[in-house]
Structure formats: structure tokens, C-alpha cells
Amino acid sequence: MNLFARFFGGSKKIKRVRENIAKRFDILGSVGNGSMSKVHRAMDRKLGREVCLKILDKKQHLALVSRFPGMERPEEGEVAVSLTHPNLVATFDWGWTLQEEPFLVMEMIKGTGLNFFADTEGKSPLNRRLDFLLQAADGLSYFHQQGYIHRDISPKNIMVTDHGIAKIIDFGLCVPNKPAFRRPGNRTGTLRYMAPELIRRSSTDERIDVFSFGVTAYEVLTGSIPWEGAGESMQEALQHVNVTGRDPREVNPHLDATAAEILLKGIARDPNERYRSMREFADALKLLEPKVVRTSPTKLAPAESPPGQPAKKGVTKSKSARPPSG
User: Fold this and answer.
1) Which segments of the chain does DSSP mark as H helices, in order?
2) How large is the angle between the packed helices 278-285 and 207-222, nearest 10 degrees?
3) Helix, coil or strand: residue 220
């Protein structure tokens, strides 16, 4: 029985033998430290290869587990090793250290975060940024198809390799897409990218990831986020609930009406007005070919015309649905 069937079919999980990290790995350097984990570049003697070793903070891990009492939430490692997709970070092994800290053994990604391309929006070709977003959308669509909600999609959790492959990382906050885990009350994630229903502690589903991806896409294509001054405070995050995101052409006048419509639908405050799935969102993004980007800024036009009325002057529509060439 595979991992997916095991924790969705009610069977008991396999016990993992605790590993002596010092014996198994040669630590080569630090990749980064966060509040919930430490990440190292290491040589894995068992696998005979260089890997990325993620060791979770025991206290923080137990605090996260306590949010789901009696719900048998699968460990991050269990989820990660069950997934195989070119746009998700590959995980080779997982377990616990002798100190009872969860650890994951992952591929070592040589590259940079997607946030780099958001910060340098004006210096990176549109097709290149679109290609990364479409790859990430494919990975997230697959993730949803496997029965999970990521809950922490953001540019920093999408890596781009030196060969131009986008990979979603960090499944530490993910949950099974099951009724018990979609109930109101559990708010986890990064406030800057958090969906309104999550902020309100309402019922959730995979559309919270659609929203987070929408904010990510907006930021990557404009270099800014949809709300003025929005940051990591709850007061600023409440803008997601109360304020419609600004037209992306106010930030990047080179974008046209088609681009504005697509990006604004991805961050709709009402989940019923968003894309129903990441596949639908990806199909919409494929409309953003170079010709929908203006060569020079123009006077701002509405994102869309009212039903039954022709588009206003200056608003163009893409006639092609081909994906960007990269």
C-alpha cells in the first residue's frame, strides 16, 4: 500500500527508525535557517550524494501538530516522499533524529527564489517570468490532485534552478484536502499572501492556494503586491478581506487589460469569483503572450467592460491561447 493510500485509507503509519545525523551526514554548509527549521547542504553517506538536509525545530513542530488534535495529520516527510513532479522539490528520505527532531533529505536545488524575479521585475523578460509561473502552476495543480492544500504559497517558496526549472518547496504547513482540515479556525501561512477566508478563519479549500498563487503572480509580473503598504501585520492583511486589489496597470502600465483581468481574478476576495482550480488559472496565464504587453505605457482603462457593452478604447484582448515560448 502506498503512502497516499495509507494515510487516506486509515491504516497505521510505518514507524521510522531514529537516525544518527552526525554519522549519516557530512554538513557542508548552511542553506538557511527559519523559525521552524534549519536547512543544510550535506553529503549523505547513505545515498552517496550531495543533498539538502532539513531539520525541523522540535518545539515548533510539536506546536504545529497541536493545532490538529486527534486528526492524524501526515508528517511533512510522509507527504513529500509521496510526490513526484518536476516542479516540486524531490524528497528522498525522511525520519527523526536521535533528539526526536523530524528531518527530510531533499534534492539540493542550485538556483534562486522566485522572489528574486519579483524584486527585479523590470530587468527580467516577461516570457521568462511567465514560464516560471506556469511551471509552478503545474506543480501546484499536481499537488492539489494528490489531495493536499499547501497553505504557504509565496515567491520565497518557489525556487528556480540554474537551468530554469521552477520547483515548489516547503510542505511544512500542508494539510490533506479533507473536511476535518478545511474547518474554520486554523490560520497558518504567510500573511502577505493569505486568502481572505483564511484571515477570517472561515472554511477553506484549495482556493486559498489559488489566492496565494495569484498574489505571487501579481508580484512577479509587476514587482509589487496588490495592496498599498501591505506587509506582515494583521492590520495590513485585513486589506485582503476589505479592499479589492489595485489594478496591476497602476503598478506596471505596460500590462494590458487581459493581464489585469487574469491577475485580479486570481486574487478575488470571494473564493467563488476566483479560478476554480490551478489548472484553470494556468490556462488563463497562457494568454499572456508578449503581444498583450504594451511597448509603452498608455492611459489606464478598466480591467473589463460591463456585460453587454463593448470594450473601452485602449483595451485589447489576446487572440491566441498558445503558451509562452519561454
Assistant:
1) 3-9, 21-24, 58-65, 76-81, 114-119, 126-145, 179-182, 196-199, 207-222, 234-237, 239-242, 248-251, 257-266, 278-285
2) 20
3) helix
Per-residue pLDDT at 119? 74
The residues of the chain scoring below 50 in pLDDT are: 1-12, 291-292, 294-326
Kindly indicate whether the domain formed by 18-106 is annotated with CATH number 3.40.50.300: no
What is the structure's pLDDT at 15? Answer: 60
What pTM did the predictor assign?
0.83
Q: What is the pLDDT of residue 290?
A: 56
Phi, psi of 100 (to 5 degrees): 65, 35
pLDDT of residue 190: 87
Enter the CATH code of domain 111-292. 1.10.510.10
What are 206's three cell numbers?
484549495
Domain ranges of the chain: 18-106, 111-292
What pLDDT score was predicted for residue 253? 87
Q: Give CB contacts under 8 A, 24+ apart, made by 266-270.
A: 266/210, 266/211, 266/213, 266/214, 266/215, 266/217, 266/218, 267/211, 267/214, 267/215, 267/218, 267/226, 267/240, 268/211, 269/196, 269/240, 269/241, 269/244
